[in-house]
Amino acid sequence: MAETTQTSSQVMMVRPARFLSNPQTLASNAFQQPAAHAGQAQIQERGQEQALLEFDAYVAALRAAGVAVLVVEDGAEPHTPDSVFPNNWISFHENGEALLYPMAAENRRLERSAATLEQIGRRFALGRVTDFSFHEADGHFLEGTGSMVLDRRRRIAYVCHSLRSHPAAMDSFLRHTGYRAHWFHACDGAGQAIYHTNVMMAVGATLAVACLEALRDEDERAALRESLCRDGAELVEISLAQMGEFAGNMLELRSALGRPLWAMSRRAWNALRPGQRARIAAHGEPLVAALDTIERLGGGGARCMLAEVFLPPLTA
Length: 316
Hints:
With about 325 residues, this protein is of the alpha/beta class. It has one domain: 5-stranded Propeller (L-arginine/glycine Amidinotransferase, Chain A), CATH 3.75.10.10. About 30% of the residues lie in helices and about 20% in strands. It has a three-stranded mixed beta sheet, sandwiched between helices. Strands 3-4-5 form a three-stranded mixed beta sheet, with no helix packed on it. Strands 6-7-8 form a three-stranded mixed beta sheet. It is globular. The chain starts with 9 loop residues before the first strand and ends in an 8-residue tail after the last strand.
């Protein structure tokens, strides 16, 4: 699978129908902060309403910046509380292929939707669909571009060890795509393993953002720094505290005219120091969205909501 482009001007997003803090993912996602006490039903209803406001505003901001957004409407049944994070179950590639991934939570497996693939196929030249979900039967998971941060041009998949990123599933991805894996161990300030690589780092065309402080092994830290800085790329290092504010959960996109953009949440932007902001802005216009409810309850941020579409568009 040869890939020549690091950034996309097209994304798929899923508008949630019944968003809430997913109890099936809570144990391994330290970024989730669910409200747990009396009045849970009211909290969930308000969370859904606020999540829709945040989602719609994010879509509008992306489109205003020149990014083509395909919005897929989630259905009320089956209940998929994390549907707003589609990049975990699917990725799209330049060769016209879609890859489907094995998910740890049973209710997240319901997000893999033939109807969504049909919508993609009506707008883009979708060829083969390759499904790695058979690994779920063995308890082996690999949650898409949450588990992996892809350097598409150099064909490197950065991945931290976690319950949601299993070597056997990873091997299937590597054999199929021709990527090579760069594995490392990463923990938050409490010593809990980082559940998804994309909450601690991002790789763009000329810039990488990473929380190297999360790597306690000095050799692994040095190797990751060297790999990210290869070919003259700039590295912006963030702290554990900034990572906890979703400052690692960014994605570089580009407008239809080729203008580079860095999508991130307001919470992430506010956590950055002025010098870090300036260095990121030198590589692309910051596109900042208010996603407080989605981040707090869902444990995922601006990058998690975007499934980049590298498929060729259908001609008229």
